[in-house]
Amino acid sequence: MGADALTATTAYRAGLRDLQAWFGVDTVFLRHHDSHHRSTTLIAEWPPREHVPDPDPLGVVEFADADPVFAATEHLREPLVFRPGSPAREYAERVESASGMSAVSMVAVPLRSGPATTGVLGLVAQGDRQWTDDELSALKATASLFSQVQARVLAEDRLRWAARHDALTGLLNRRGMTDELTARLAAGRPRFAVLYFDLDRLEALNDVLGHTAGDEFLRTVADRLRRFSDDDLLLCRWGGDEFVLVLPDADTEDEAYVEACRLLMSVTARVELAGDVVSRTASIGVAVARPGLDTVDSVIAGADQAALAAKTAGGNAVSLFTDEIRRRTALRNDIELHLRAAIENDALLLHFQPEIDLPTGRITAVEALVRWMHPTRGMIPPVEFVGIAESVNLATELGRWVLNDACRTFASWRRRLGALSITLRVNVSPAQLVSRDFVGVVAATLERHGLAPGDLCIEITEVAVVHDVTLAARALAAVRDLGVRVAIDDFGTGYSSLSHLKTLPVDAVKIDREFVAHLDTDADDHAIVGAVVTLATAYRLDLIAEGLETVAAREALLELGCTRAQGYLYARPEPADTVYDMLRVGVLTPS
């Protein structure tokens, strides 16, 4: 029988039709057993009954409640013959109620798969009929063919199920949910909500209790999701510790948000694992899908980004996908896709902000600040793409471009001015600082543009060194051995600032603008800056204030003993040609 899962039903009926004609019986049927649920189901019959009762007494029969004849087929090993007048009255009544046939003869031949009985092939004749040994042998051979088709179909069903389901939890997997969402997003279908459920810090549970406990926790989460939804086709383990839940009846953000909050409380309740009572918080993102407009990718991405917003805000929360999240996501995707090309094709540019000696107004340094003139988005500030560059491993390439272009510009200024006794400050990312060739790149760049090491000061943030102070200190010491100066940027906003001053080989600190902006009106900021001045003096470090914007803040800095600053009071970051004109004068006054 050349049949598979797609053609099995047709093949079954064709086989039953041939058997009915060959043996001259009134009807032939095929039943499959479900050993797990202890039931038997009518799969095919020939000829089809014209009038089938509802419910069909012959449709699904539970073995636990079956008459003796049906019960006997559960573990049947040899053909069972039933003739009129036998004591199986309940079976005869069941057949008569379903087909109208009375006083029938029947032979039931088991379908066998190894030691198990997987179904029966039955032939029924009106009145009395005897079965010869040759007929029974032929029926046993035919039943074996039916059992082979059944085994093939079951194997294909298992493969098909495995392709669409997660082996650990039994929920739909990513492929299965994608198929379901694709169907629901067809034009004309109703709106629905998608919840993207992300467990917070599941790896900590795995580290402490082991991955077996972690898997058990995920199965518990899946069971709780099942209790929350009555349709397994709406549940998915998207991957790792992430789940997707479809709310078909929630077509507004408010409805979806309420349901998501209920889900959060249910799924994050405590669980007993390996003798411990544990719990994990979660972040849930909500996106309302618009069939005919949205795609599977856009809906999942929206809910995922909303979940990320909830996680970034501290976790254990629900966040809606908003236009602002959509804007940030589109910008991030654009940057990830095109930043490398922008670096390679010199599509970036530098602005420079002067640093001023406050008593004299003399320019003492310039800080190089990268910008991106995007072909469609216009000027993109560094806050929008530097962090993304770090997350996609482009920070080192970006840093090399900035260092090279800053040194090239500085050298051109010196050639045009004849002399330039200021410092060039260039920011260095964490990844760039600890790269193996960092010191070599700095030395080669200085040599390429004819600059002395003392012309350059690299600036690092405290965050850049907090994860591995020892490695950072080694890199900074090596670059200082070249003669390049080092400054800590945004001082006071990182971690363990005092210990960093003691551990790291630095020459200067730059006070973060957060403490300078309200220096003249905020007593706390005044005290903090005063303490930093004292520290810088004790460690014999240069001190520069960032974000100077008012004359009053300038006077407060001078009163505290900080004599160098940069900020809008004197100059904003400007293109190289504009800064060249400033350098030609050499002195700036408050604006």
In short:
This protein is α/β, with parallel strands linked by helices and 591 residues long. The protein is built from 21 helices and 23 strands. It has an 8-stranded mixed beta barrel with strand order 14-15-17-18-19-20-21-22, surrounded by 4 helices. A 6-stranded antiparallel sheet has the order 3-2-1-6-5-4. The protein has a 5-stranded mixed sheet with strand order 8-9-7-12-13, with helices on both faces.
Provide an overview of this structure.
By secondary structure, the chain is an alpha/beta fold. It folds into three domains: 8-163, GAF domain (Beta-Lactamase, 2-Layer Sandwich), CATH 3.30.450.40; 174-321, Reverse transcriptase/Diguanylate cyclase domain (Alpha-Beta Plaits), CATH 3.30.70.270; 332-581, TIM Barrel. Helices cover 45% and strands 23% of the residues. It is built from 21 helices and 23 strands. An eight-stranded mixed beta barrel has the order 14-15-17-18-19-20-21-22, surrounded by four helices. A six-stranded antiparallel beta sheet has the order 3-2-1-6-5-4. A hairpin with a 2-residue loop joins strand 8 and strand 9. Helix 10 crosses helix 11 (382-391) and helix 12 (395-417) runs parallel beside helix 14 (438-448). It is elongated.
